[in-house]
Amino acid sequence: MTAAYRELEARFARHAAIGEAASMLHWDMSAMMPTGGSGARAEQLAALKRVCHDILTAPETADLIAAAGEGTALDAWQAANLREMRRAWVHATALDGALVEAMVRTCAASEMAWRAARPANDFAAVKPHLEAVLRLVREVGQAKGERLGCLPYDALLDEYEPGGRAARIDPVFDDLAAFLPGFIARALESQAARPAPLPLDGPFPVATQRELALRLMRALGFDFDHGRLDTSLHPFCGGVPDDVRITTRYDEADFSRTLMGVLHETGHALYERGLPVAWRRQPVGSARGMSVHESQSLLVEMQVCRGRPFLEFAAPLFRAAFGQDGPAWSAENLHRRAIRVARSFIRVDADEATYPAHVILRYRLERALIAGDLTVADLPGAWNDGMKTLLGVAPPDDRRGCLQDIHWYDGAWGYFPTYTMGAMTAAQLFDAAARALPELPAAIRRGDFAPLLGWLRREVHGRASLLETDDLLTVATGRPLDPGVFKAHLERRYISDI
Amino acid sequence: MTAAYRELEARFARHAAIGEAASMLHWDMSAMMPTGGSGARAEQLAALKRVCHDILTAPETADLIAAAGEGTALDAWQAANLREMRRAWVHATALDGALVEAMVRTCAASEMAWRAARPANDFAAVKPHLEAVLRLVREVGQAKGERLGCLPYDALLDEYEPGGRAARIDPVFDDLAAFLPGFIARALESQAARPAPLPLDGPFPVATQRELALRLMRALGFDFDHGRLDTSLHPFCGGVPDDVRITTRYDEADFSRTLMGVLHETGHALYERGLPVAWRRQPVGSARGMSVHESQSLLVEMQVCRGRPFLEFAAPLFRAAFGQDGPAWSAENLHRRAIRVARSFIRVDADEATYPAHVILRYRLERALIAGDLTVADLPGAWNDGMKTLLGVAPPDDRRGCLQDIHWYDGAWGYFPTYTMGAMTAAQLFDAAARALPELPAAIRRGDFAPLLGWLRREVHGRASLLETDDLLTVATGRPLDPGVFKAHLERRYISDI
After folding, report:
1. CATH architecture label of A163-498
2. pTM for the full predicted model
């Protein structure tokens, strides 16, 4: 190990510590900050961002990265750390300052325009903003693609999914896109053949929902010496591995949305918390990327918590908490409610079976927009056509169509595919865990999540960014991403009703 | 205005924004953070501190400071800003890196030893640590004194009280030290001649105390769009001017301690919030120093809220909140309780009349220790002698003597005098406000604090660090600090019973 490598570790530790500070301030902004604090907070975050950028783009960093790999024996973790350092450095240095500034300004203006245009159902009002964002994003993709040696779209994807490439996603999504329309029709048929689930009568007091959420978080392994649950408008998992902050929001008419949301964020939190202590504040010690991150939340929410064994464990807790009883509160009825399928317009409200169709639509559209094969003017029409093809329904207006998500308007291009890559990864990981742990359903049924968490710690969390995403999955499950496992899961749950 | 000056403003804005980030993280650490987050938080804060230090000590900063003042017309605020920039820069550059690091390490070890030694009443255990701290603090005072052109003690004081000098404090404290022993005896006599105040029967639910605290904060002018009230072990005022975070702790057996604590922190908060918006994140836009800061908390708590007019406003609120009534809940009885005097060993529990004696003792001892006229070995004896002289009681052990305060063990030397300078400043400011606003007692009696807040905004808050402390007081009250005003206040409240 060279002095250059050691010095790089020190630099990146400082870089990460400042990033951690920013992460805590982001959490505070959403969960604690009074509205009047937003101006000062923006100044604080901008200053921290600039310091981080300065550390990565300093000439010494380039020199150290060049020197650190030369003829020295780094162990596997150190070599992977250097690989991730280089990746962060390429992303930071690929763009000149003027482009970065233009992005910040243009995205901020576009996001503001979108916030007004969405409720007003006024795509025309935000169209010039979106065009401006797209122009810059294509420039960013071009510049980063040249440095990374990949296509512009891949370079954008690489920010959220390091090493991710459209050539890997295309066959997987094409396969799924061919499967979904028929599958959704069959799932709805199968659902219609069964009696409708019974309603749950509220209201469900916020304090009780919170107690229940804490109880389930604890059961799953969330460590409250190293984290908190708070309230925010948009639930998220924030903070840092040693101090994970998750949030939720409450609806007194519907507790299951809150709880499933908390369980989803708990999946993210367990991943962060399980990252290797020895590599804290080093690039290799960070989460592997957005698809693996989403796989951890969806493994907990979709694979575990909407399944029968979990709901057999949880049903008595629900009944006791809300002082309710009767057939509506049986595990079976709760399960029926948790896996209800419906064609709908809004992605964030979609169920497990239809969600991938929403994502594939967005992935295809953003690729076409970046490639120049689709114009912003043609986006609303292309959106509605795609919805018709993939989901069999077209939204009656743009508010429920191409205006619904913040991502593109805010400059987040290349993010969407990670949701469904994550869902498929979750299915494959849970399948492997179930094979490795034959007693898993019984353990879940009695509320013992230690075997599952142990497996995840070993196979996923503890490996952090040691391996590239594909290799991580191969080592954990015996093969790279296989959409067949996800499809088999959907068949079992929604058609065979196992 | 030169380009150099403008560039300095940009640098200091960045410096301040990062300092603000650290301030928010300090608040979170005390009010929100789970225990397991402390290691990561220490890394975050250390990284921010280093960035701030690097900005101040960069060679460009020195060049800009030298260039900014040259033959250019700065207006009064800009000139004061440059003066405060230079002050911050001198403090940052006076010490070499090795001394700064030794201070951090030695103080951390000493604080840890003190945390164990205090409950164990074991001064011997912490003595070598305190000696090590003192050695370094004397070095720091020496180095900074050379740069500032003042004595080592003054240089230490200057960190908390910019421009503060022992030569200004000595006559003031000597005057007070001569006055206090006789005054305390007379106050106790006068108190004994009156019937003892009636007890208030609790318990007082935490939720009710909190509601009451919020009600009083609102009345005083605390803006909840720009601040919060939370809970922490040691109450404090933190955050930033646009997002002020104050904390308290609750005791179900005694609500008045909580409320008076909240009102004290509210005084600090109103000061921060009233700093001039045009000078946010610039040195001249910051609070003037610790004695002026303490004057704002003590003006609210001691001058206003322990006085009869305020308690006539508050008594009905207390009765309604706790559903109580009867003579114990009269404004007069609440006032009697709020101004109770007792000789005691512990500074933080001391009343308004005896508190200055505690402070003068510490001031004299720390000056002697820094000057080399007193050794750490002789500290316990000197402490007890001083208590006897100033307060007429000597503590039965070091736990209630020289082990009680964290300050010296943690490296905060030169801080103590600001408490009592603040108390005297508060008396003088409130006296001036009362002269300027003849209707003030009537306004307070009906819960209208706008006239007082308006006066403070104009005369103190809005001036930030434009003037040096003495000049600020002279402009606001017509003369520099005059201990006579504080003594007259004590006479009126504790002897004449007005």
Report:
1. Orthogonal Bundle (1.10)
2. 0.95
